Amino acid sequence: MAGSIYTALASFTRGVLKGAEPDDPVNGLAKAKQTEEHRQVGESDAAGDNIPLPDEPKGWRKLAEGSFPKSEAVARRHIEQICAWNRAADLRGAGNMLHHCLLISDAHNRLSQPNTVPTRFLYELLQNADDNKYGNKKPILRITYTDDANGNTLRIDTNEIGFSAEDIQAICSIAQGQKLSDPSRIGEKGLGFKSVFGLSSSVWISSGRYSFKLVSEKMKKLGSVTPVWEKFPQPTLPQHTSILLRLYPEPMSNSRELVSMLKSLESALLFLRKLKEVEITILEKDVEPWKTTLKRRIKPLGKDISMHEILKDGVQHLTYHVFRQEVTELGHDERRSGRDTSDLLLAFATGEPKPENLYTFLPVRDFGLQVCPIFFRTGIRIN
User: Fold this and answer.
1) pLDDT value of position 315
2) How many C-beta neighbours within 10 Å does residue 21 have?
3) Which Pfam families match (predicted)?
4) CA of 223: how far to CAs of 4, 111, 122, 198, 253, in Å?
């Protein structure tokens, strides 16, 4: 029943917005504002320094893929325009109602189940890091957890090429997350990134020309977060994307669970596609620093058979024999537009038997063996 209501609301809302006249309370005013901003950016930017912008002030509208601002000024204007779009979406009256009906329709199925384990956002950050583009560099992820007098933080550093304008747009709007027609992607950057607000109050991002802060405000606006241009609060690494999370102080059990996850992250690397090395550092009050380096190594054993090894500080820690089978004639799904095949992977440990997980590239739940098909998950990696 609820699904049909959401579908009806979405159909009605899209029809109204599609046929909106220039004096429409949402599209008229907001579009005029956006057109003026378009003009200002176009006049001030040097040739070739523009980044393409959406036609309408909606956070989920797609930007041209692969567009990177060539200066900090252009990146800053892009962030400011996202703020303007979010303000336009907050217009009162009918426009506000239509906007929220559409957001509810688009986000309902994706967020239909709560993330019952807040610390599982760590898997989403791993997934995003694996989806990043690294050029010809060896992909490396650095994770640093700090517990000091200033509070608890989690920092993620990757040596990727940097976020594009499309990536920024996806982070700031759940409904505009990139579709997964690209087989090199294992997730949706927009949806997965929202999970950080289950355990974090503020997030800073430094990537390429971008430097901004996101504040959750308990996810006040369904489906979108508003970025604010701000300098990254810690020294950054050259040619890296850095993400800093200010964690909630309570409950302390979340921090303990997060530290426990960081210390046992080895098997999470098993089915990743790009990341080959993860460095983890844990800095806690009155405790010796804890550091480790995990590396993934793959040895082909034959057609569709390989041996996957996880090394911890240079020592072999986990070994699996992995069997791959292509599955064809899959049903159509918008989240995998243009793809009708998938790989099914089965991994068998060479050591003592133990409980194993079902994966969609990263762990979902205990299933008795290591299996990795491309499933669509309900909620945020819980089923």
Assistant:
1) 93
2) 7
3) SACS (PF25794)
4) 20, 9, 20, 14, 27
Q: How far from 121 is each of 67, 116, 239, CA to CA, in Å?
A: 27, 11, 25
131 neighbors 187 (Cβ within 8 angstroms)? yes
Element (H, E) at 335: none
User: Alpha-carbon distance 23 to 330, whole Å?
Assistant: 45
Return residue ranges of the chain for CATH 3.30.565.10: 118-372
Give whole-number Cα distances, 178 to 108, 261, 342, in Å: 17, 28, 18
Q: What is the identity of the amino acid at 188?
A: E
Strands 241-247 and 151-158: antiparallel
- Nearest alpha carbon to residue 368 among 360, 359, 358: 358
- Whole-model pTM: value is 0.70
Element spanning 252, H or E: helix 252-262
Of 80, 38, 31, 21, the residue nearest 56 (C-alpha): 31
Structure tokens at 296: 């993934």
Q: Tell me the pairing of strands 140-148 and 277-283.
A: parallel
Is 3.30.1330.10 the CATH classification of the domain at 118-372? no
pLDDT digits (tens, 9 = 90+) for 209-266: 999 998 765 444 445 677 899 999 999 999 999 999 999 887 777 888 899 999 999 8
Q: Contact 57/31 with Cβ under 8 angstroms? A: yes
Strand, helix or coil for residue 370: strand
> What are the φ/ψ torsions at residue 327 (nearest 5 degrees)?
-110, 130
Report in angstroms the alpha-carbon separations of 271 from 243, 258, 267, 354, 381: 23, 21, 9, 18, 15
CA separation, residue 225 to residues 19, 21, 280 (Å): 27, 28, 28
CA neighbor of 376 nearest in space, from 179, 199, 195, 194: 179
Handedness of CA 319, 373, 174, 161 (dihedral sign): positive
Contact indicator for 60, 106 with CB cutoff of 8 Å: yes
Distance CA 278, CA 292 (A): 8
Express each pLDDT in 307-316 by its tens digit: 999 999 999 9
pLDDT above 70 covers a percentage of the chain that reads: 56
